[in-house]
Amino acid sequence: MWFAAALLWAMQPDPAALVPLYEQALAQRERELGPHHVKLARIARDFALFHLKHGRQAAAIPLLRKALAIDERHYGPANRIAAEDMEHLAALLAGDEALALRARAAQCDDAAVAARNLAALAEWELSRRNPAAALARYREALAKEQQASGDAHPRYAVRLNDVALLLDPPAAEPLLRRALAIQESALGPQHPEVAVTLNNLANILLALGRLPDALPLARRALSALEHSLGAVHPRVATAASNLADILAAAKDYSAARALYERALRIDEKALGPNHPEIAVDLENLAALHDTIGNKAQAAKLRARAASLKPAN
């Protein structure tokens, strides 16, 4: 039955027609093997992931709960398979239950799974404005990622970025340079992840007042994203704004204005002219117009930005 369902999945153009096949396979396995057999967990998990692929989150949750209960009973809570069930389920839940699942998955014997969930816990701490707790979690994630992937893997470089962005600029710089070297070696100089680190490092150097060092890095980041994602991608808009910030600090106001306006055009096209995130582009432009004395234009831009922000 399970082989037939999988074969039909490959041949059947209508995903809805596969739901009863999954349900039949699940019911048959439970009758044949009992409610706690590990093979039942595998079908439940696959059925849940099928639902997720087609946007049916609510249908996936009870199946993942079933898979987790079986896998945890069979393998133990620190096993990778059980922890991945926790991870999948946590991504669909909110509040204390999701947090508790992440915390349990972070204790997994598999270092890669532990690293991912430690990073998710750090992000939660950041959302609660607890940077010290977030930094502690990110440091744990970094150590686990080193254990899982080694210290020359792009995933390790991502964790270096996470830690660096919560440190003071002098401490952050060497971590970001190390991350950049790893990514350039593993991914090539024009990969989007390289551009992220270039921008992060440029911002750190800007904070340190080292504008001549920051500018070429921000230019490289923009060029890399244009090359890899195209000239009108929203991430290009972010990189253009980042470079404009540095140019404005260097008092190259004409070049900064051109880049802020480019970022605004890209985001308006990608998001629509009334999207709340457009307000950030407008406020960047307004600040520049204030700096160069165009108070009326700055006020006009700020008024438009205010109209786009959601009411509190």
How are the SSEs placed, and which strands pair?
Blueprint: H1 2-11, H2 19-33, H3 38-53, H4 57-75, H5 80-92, H6 95-105, H7 111-127, H8 131-149, H9 154-164, H10 169-187, H11 192-207, H12 211-229, H13 234-249, H14 253-271, H15 278-291, H16 295-308
Describe this structure in words.
This protein is globular. The protein has helices spanning 2-11, 19-33, 38-53, 57-75, 80-92, 95-105, 111-127, 131-149, 154-164, 169-187, 192-207, 211-229, 234-249, 253-271, 278-291, 295-308. It folds into 3 domains: 1-109, Tetratricopeptide repeat domain (Serine Threonine Protein Phosphatase 5, Tetratricopeptide repeat), CATH 1.25.40.10; 110-171, no CATH class; 220-312, Tetratricopeptide repeat domain (Serine Threonine Protein Phosphatase 5, Tetratricopeptide repeat, Alpha Horseshoe), CATH 1.25.40.10. Helix 8 (131-149) runs antiparallel to helix 9 (154-164) and helix 11 (192-207) packs parallel to helix 13 (234-249). The relative contact order is 0.04. It is an all-alpha fold. It has 16 helices and no strands.
